[in-house]
């Protein structure tokens, strides 16, 4: 029981939801002494994948109306659309949309299909604001955004593969330092023996890719296509602030003697984005990879688990396969031990909340 308890705790705390479902984050512009007030640094960062590519392979910025928008024009439009915003207020928000590997398999052409999808969900995005302009509901014409498709990802320090490989990485580093000391005559020892230990550690590290231990900065294999969206804080007329980071979902407040609507419904946006993907690409979504499942897992583990067990046999097999690959060891929990599993899940609920938030306004 204790071993199963510890293993489940470790896996849930390290779980990366990106591996099993559409993952969306909405993050405000970083504002500090180390970051520019301009969007230029972020645009330059998003241009990094185009370095060294042939003209036909370059991924350009685009929006609802145009393809192949130059980076300099993105900077000009976003920086010039920040009227009356203070230095401490974000001028733009970054939206990252990362389809799962299962969703990406449904696409015929990743880049073109993701452009179609981006334009569709930005209509979903604007529909989730509880705002009006001159008495009319907001439309896609009322926002200013630019998007870009990226095809590569690298392993970061927060990835489960890096964290679980870290003890091996630390020991390998120590052995390499010892080899250096032996060569400099600072300590005694057999270099050959230490090299053999390093080789053994490289082979026994839990996470490997193409025969090599996964390390920070290594490119992830497979289709890693995802979408970066830069959306201006101000509307297209540079007069109204539209913040998806608002703590208000939907409310009204008196402003200059007028009743003004305010708020952004993030929950609705995430749900709409999922439905839009399914409808656009005729994707048959399993419960285990749904936004609802993710919410159930966090807020109501009992309902999450009982729903899984209530799926049809075929759907249940698919669900357990998806969850197993995302790091949740539910496949190894027998049906007759449901109550034990639920008890364990409840004990880790607080940790799951922290693991999924990761500092962003996201799923």
What does this structure look like?
By secondary structure, the chain is α+β, with helices and mostly antiparallel strands. The protein is 43% helix and 13% strand. The chain has 13 helices and eleven strands. The protein has a five-stranded antiparallel sheet, with helices on one face. It has a two-stranded antiparallel ribbon with strand order 3-4. Strands 6-7 form a two-stranded antiparallel ribbon. A hairpin with a 2-residue loop joins strand 6 and strand 7. Helix 5 runs antiparallel to helix 8, helix 9 packs across helix 10 and helix 10 packs antiparallel against helix 12. The chain is globular and about 80 Å long. The N terminus and C terminus are likely disordered.
Strand content: 5-15%
List SSEs in N-to-C order.
HEHHEHHEEEHHEEEEEHHHHHHE
Query: How many helices?
Result: 13
Unreliable sequence segments: 1-18, 331-338, 344-363
Content-based structural category = alpha+beta
Number of strands: 11
Q: Give the termini separation.
A: 31 Å
What is the helix fraction of residues, given as a range?
A: 40-55%
The rounded Rg comes to 24 Å
Mean pLDDT: 83
Q: Major sheet: size, sense and barrel closure?
A: 5 strands, antiparallel
What's the shape?
Answer: globular
Strand order of the main beta sheet, please? 5-8-2-1-11
Architecture blueprint of SSEs:
Elements: H1 2-14, E1 23-28, H2 40-46, H3 71-79, E2 92-98, H4 101-104, H5 110-127, E3 132-133, E4 136-137, E5 145-150, H6 160-183, H7 191-204, E6 208-209, E7 212-213, E8 226-232, E9 251-255, E10 258-262, H8 266-281, H9 291-299, H10 301-309, H11 313-325, H12 338-347, H13 349-357, E11 361-362
């Amino acid at each position: 029981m204790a071993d199963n308890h510890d293993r489940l705790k470790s896996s849930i705390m390290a779980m990366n939801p990106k591996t099993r479902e559409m993952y969306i984050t909405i993050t405000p512009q970083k504002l500090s002494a180390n970051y520019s007030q301009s969007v230029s640094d972020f645009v330059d960062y998003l241009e990094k994948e185009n370095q060294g590519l042939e003209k036909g392979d370059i991924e350009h910025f685009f929006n609802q109306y145009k393809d192949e928008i130059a980076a300099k024009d993105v900077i000009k439009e976003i920086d010039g659309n920040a009227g009356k915003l203070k230095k401490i207020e974000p001028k733009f928000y970054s939206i990252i949309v990362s389809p799962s590997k299962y969703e990406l398999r449904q696409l015929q052409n990743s880049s073109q299909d993701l452009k179609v999808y981006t334009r569709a969900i930005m209509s979903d995005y604007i529909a989730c604001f509880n705002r009006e302009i001159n008495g009319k509901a907001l439309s896609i014409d009322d926002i200013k955004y630019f998007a870009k498709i990226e095809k590569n990802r690298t392993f970061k320090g927060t990835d489960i593969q890096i964290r679980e490989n870290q003890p091996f990485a630390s020991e390998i580093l120590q052995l390499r330092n010892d080899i250096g000391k032996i060569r400099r005559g600072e300590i005694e020892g057999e270099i050959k023996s230490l090299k053999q230990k390093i080789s053994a550690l490289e082979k026994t590290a839990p996470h490997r890719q193409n025969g090599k231990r996964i390390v920070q900065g290594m490119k992830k294999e497979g289709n890693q296509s995802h979408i970066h969206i830069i959306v201006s804080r101000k509307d297209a007329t540079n007069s109204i602030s539209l913040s998806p980071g608002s703590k208000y979902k939907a409310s009204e407040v008196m402003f200059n003697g007028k009743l003004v609507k305010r708020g952004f419904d993030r929950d609705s946006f995430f749900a709409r984005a999922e439905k839009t993907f399914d409808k656009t690409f005729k994707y048959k979504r399993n419960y285990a990879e749904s936004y609802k499942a993710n919410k159930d897992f966090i807020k109501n583990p009992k309902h999450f688990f009982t729903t899984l067990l209530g799926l049809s046999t075929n759907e249940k097999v698919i669900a357990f396969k998806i969850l197993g690959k995302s790091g949740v060891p539910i496949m190894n929990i027998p049906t007759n031990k449901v109550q034990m599993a639920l008890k364990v899940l409840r004990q880790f609920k607080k940790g799951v909340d922290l693991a999924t938030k990761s500092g962003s306004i996201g799923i």
